[in-house]
Specification:
The chain is of the alpha/beta class. It folds into 2 domains: 5-124, Rossmann fold; 128-276, 2-Layer Sandwich (Dihydrodipicolinate Reductase, domain 2). Helices cover 30% and strands 27% of the residues. The strands form 2 sheets. Strands 8-9-10-7-11-12-13-14 form an 8-stranded mixed β-sheet, covered by helices on one side. The chain has a 6-stranded parallel β-sheet with strand order 3-2-1-4-5-6, sandwiched between helices. α2 (40-47) links the parallel β2 (30-36) and β3. The two termini are 28 Å apart.
């Protein structure tokens, strides 16, 4: 039997703790070797009763823990660059939650550092390409049965935003998913963007410009609009509707993908992304 891949999980918050659980109980061929978080008690809580896991308050130290052969970064974005560069120095492959880094200058440093290695070590955590409904929609669009896609209408809603959330993060941390998914679904690059902001919701923290409407144009002539609302108050919703020349399809609702075309159509709001993309 082959040796399990030992993974260091950096960040033990809501998302990091879920990664620890999944690596231990769901993912085959891997195990949790180390967990790092500035809050040692939070790291210990994430580990729970899993055997053979070392706990650290320093992310770089976790990379040197016994048995670590890969890294999963789920810490706040501002901590990603240091962790990525340290992983590169050790030749460790990385699954990094988005944003890879918070700004373009840092992104360039990371990309250049990886390029100097001559091999790719980083995968950013855009999971929608692997979601069943998104894959169904991709297959439908690629098959051409509904004609060319003309528009995508997207909705991205969260119950509430964490305390550190800023207006820029509505795009950097939320709409970035739609940016990746839209390019993949359409096979086109985004060529222009417009951001519109209504008056902020009364449910948004003071100073947070929430919700926002983002409109993308593509180099293939399609349009993509994204409503992002991270303090909607009622549930977690991620939806996408493709409008094509001869019909349309919608994903992200309780009944699965709904396809509408000539002749008719065929075909609980989750509280959290952990449920929607389980």
């Amino acid at each position: 039997m082959s040796e399990l891949l030992g993974v260091a999980v950096l960040g033990a918050g809501h998302m990091g703790a879920d990664h620890v659980r999944r690596l231990d109980a769901v993912v085959s061929g891997a195990r949790v070797a180390a967990v790092a978080d500035p809050d040692a008690e939070r790291a210990k809580e994430a580990v729970g009763g899993i055997d053979g896991v070392s706990v650290h308050t320093d992310a770089v130290a976790a990379l040197d823990a016994p048995g670590v052969r890969a890294v999963l970064i789920a810490s706040p974005g501002e901590a990603h660059e240091e962790a990525l560069l340290a992983a590169f120095e050790r030749g460790l492959p990385v699954l990094c939650e988005k944003p890879m880094v918070p700004d373009s200058a840092g992104a360039l440093r990371v990309v250049e550092a990886e390029a100097r290695l001559g091999r790719r070590l980083t995968q950013v955590g855009f999971m929608r390409r692997y979601d069943t409904e998104y894959r169904q929609l991709k297959s439908l669009l690629d098959g051409g049965r509904l004609g060319r896609p003309l528009m995508l209408h997207c909705v991205h809603r969260n119950v509430s935003s964490p305390p550190h959330f800023t207006s820029a993060m509505l795009v950097n941390s939320s709409v970035s998913h739609e940016i990746d998914a839209s390019r993949w679904l359409l096979g086109q690059e985004l060529s222009a963007v417009t951001v519109l902001r209504p008056r902020p919701s009364a449910g948004a923290p003071e100073g947070l410009l929430d919700p926002q409407l983002v409109l993308f144009e593509t180099d293939g002539g399609a349009l993509v609009d994204v409503e992002v609302f991270v303090n909607c108050g009622f549930g977690y919703e991620v939806r996408c509707e493709a409008v094509c020349e001869a019909g349309g399809a919608r994903i992200g609702e309780a009944h699965g993908m709904l396809v509408t075309a000539a002749g008719g159509a065929r075909e609980e709001v989750p509280q959290d992304y952990l449920v929607r993309f389980a």
